[in-house]
Amino acid sequence: MSAVLPVTPTVEAAAGHRLVLRRFTRNRLAVAGLAVVVLFLLFCFAGPLLHSTDQTHTHLTQVNLAPSGAHLLGTDAVGHDELGRLMYGGKVSLLVGLASGLLATVIGTLWGAVAGYAGGWIDAVMMRVVDAGIAIPALFILLVVSAITTPDTWGLVVILGLVSWLVPSRLVRAETLTLKGRDYVLTLRAIGGTHGRAIGRHILPNSVSTVVVAATFQVADAILLVAYVSYLGLGVQPPSTDWGGMLSAGLTAAYSGRWWLIVPPGLAIILVVCAFNAIGDGLRDAFDVRGRG
């Protein structure tokens, strides 16, 4: 009589991918959010190829021009084309948001998986570290570090990643506590499989729904944190900029009626953050539906 091998959730997950995709595409708000993100990625990264502008040197003869055929969104206080500036700043905001969100998710996933799988005093110590970190506002840490180091783009990515991994770690730990008692994990341990293999082969792959949803929210939070810090003048330094820096630079000009210096970057931040949140909500609902099926 041949042995009956246990069916791992990896196989179940592969079979459920189509259902998850179908549920996600039925969520119109999530699909709209995905479309907005794709459009902004094209706008910021491919747009400069079609609308090339000089965002390094000043043009004092063209300062604070209103929107026109030559400058569709006008110019700022040093003569930079505002449309090109929006692309340039968006590239920094999206790059920092995506990279730091990914870094935070990776760190949090590994930390939470190890803590949840190890259990006992190891789990207690690791999660007390997380609790202590959550008690300190991430924005406060970011402001202090930014004031000391004056980070560049990649410096912001590292700083944001190191202050934003705490929430994903708690989510993955909770998922790991459920998964480590499943038959396929116990079977692997019974036949001599290592802890690393159990985490890498079963725990992490079957936590993918939690990880993906957490990553989308982390990106949205990172974009907002970058905007906060740059608005206070502690983000990337000139001639580089991001949407938060554009808001800070255009705030005083807005009182003089130069709305084009503040409305476009403000709308960009709102649209992108709401889009990532909508994607996260759609993914969460899609994976939850599969889990209840």
Automatic annotation (TrEMBL):
It is a multi-pass membrane protein. The chain crosses the membrane at residues 29-50, 92-117, 129-148, 154-172, 211-234, 259-280. It comes from the Bacteria. Residues 90-280 form the ABC transmembrane type-1 domain. InterPro entries: BP-dependent_transpt_permease (IPR050366), MetI-like (IPR000515), MetI-like_sf (IPR035906), OppC_N (IPR025966). It is found in: Cell membrane. Keywords: Cell membrane, Membrane, Transmembrane, Transmembrane helix, Transport. It holds the Pfam family BPD_transp_1. CDD domains: TM_PBP2. PANTHER family: D,D-DIPEPTIDE TRANSPORT SYSTEM PERMEASE PROTEIN DDPC-RELATED (PTHR43386:SF1), OLIGOPEPTIDE TRANSPORT SYSTEM PERMEASE PROTEIN APPC (PTHR43386). Belongs to the binding-protein-dependent transport system permease family. This is ABC transporter permease. It comes from Streptomyces mirabilis. The lineage of its organism: Bacteria, Bacillati, Actinomycetota, Actinomycetes, Kitasatosporales.
